[in-house]
Amino acid sequence: MTALLQPPTRTENAVQTGASRRRRAYRALQPTGWGIVARWVWLSVAGILSFFPFYAMVVLSLKPGMVVELPGSLSPFQDISFEAYEQVLTGQNILGWLGNTLIYSLVSVVAVLFLSALAGYAFAKKRFRGKEVMFWSFLAMVMVPFHVTLIPTFILMANLGGVDTYWGLILPSLANAQAVFLMRQFIQGLPDELFEAARIDGAGEFRIFLQIVLPLCKPILATLGIFVFLWHWNDFLWPLIIAKSNAMFTLTVGISSLQQQNVPLSTMLAGSVVALLPIFLAYLIAQRYVQEGVAGTGIKG
């Protein structure tokens, strides 16, 4: 009874005061009714503004031979025709450009993911002389603009005979400092006990990499794969310089070349829609892994 009647100590007062402050702060951060309405209005407006260019691209691509008059031309229920898509798929070499872009993007994704995962594992879990100097020197490449190294890279590829070839298109993009940095940050968060147990069981380093590191890195690999795929799918400058013939053009270069042929606007927009579809499908497939990878990298980095 005496213990129950004793006043709270300083520690108990501090704990109660801290809990009370946290409750007040939590209540202060809760949005009011008007705050919720304002937030949804703002997000709706931002979503409409972001979606409008894609809507206009699709609608105008379905109206070939018409003079663009705003806002009347943006109506999706008048004079719809797929003639522009027929012209793109039959009259232009867009299927060849699509194949070149797929080869450029997919091969680059596989090679960049494999090489960056190897390098990230070495920088995160291996000990060797000069590791930190080597890592930060490699990461400093991020601060060097691509345009600075463009001419030396082209001269090197030309001397090696890589102009107007697939390997000349792909090879310069394989050393990706951003990919190595993301893989290192993710692999650093993996517990060392897994690797020690695998070594005790007699597993070699390459087996550890294939059977432990890669399966655990699926979220960040999917995230990085989407980013690398987008970088290469939308790349314009390097494919423009290294490709000399129409047969080696990628989609971005090929669609840009249509402007020099006085192709109608609807045909160019139809080509842009065709170029957009693979990106949209790739993101839908890997959306869950992208979210997990971004969250995991943010926590473990």
UniProtKB/TrEMBL annotation:
The chain crosses the membrane at residues 40-62, 102-123, 135-160, 208-230, 236-255, 267-286. GO terms for biological process: transmembrane transport. Pfam families: BPD_transp_1. Residues 98-286 form the ABC transmembrane type-1 domain. It is found in: Cell membrane. It comes from the Bacteria. Keywords: Cell membrane, Membrane, Transmembrane, Transmembrane helix, Transport. CDD domains: TM_PBP2 (cd06261). It is a multi-pass membrane protein. Belongs to the binding-protein-dependent transport system permease family. This is L-arabinose transport system permease protein AraQ. It comes from Microbacterium hydrocarbonoxydans. The lineage of its organism: Bacteria, Bacillati, Actinomycetota, Actinomycetes, Micrococcales.
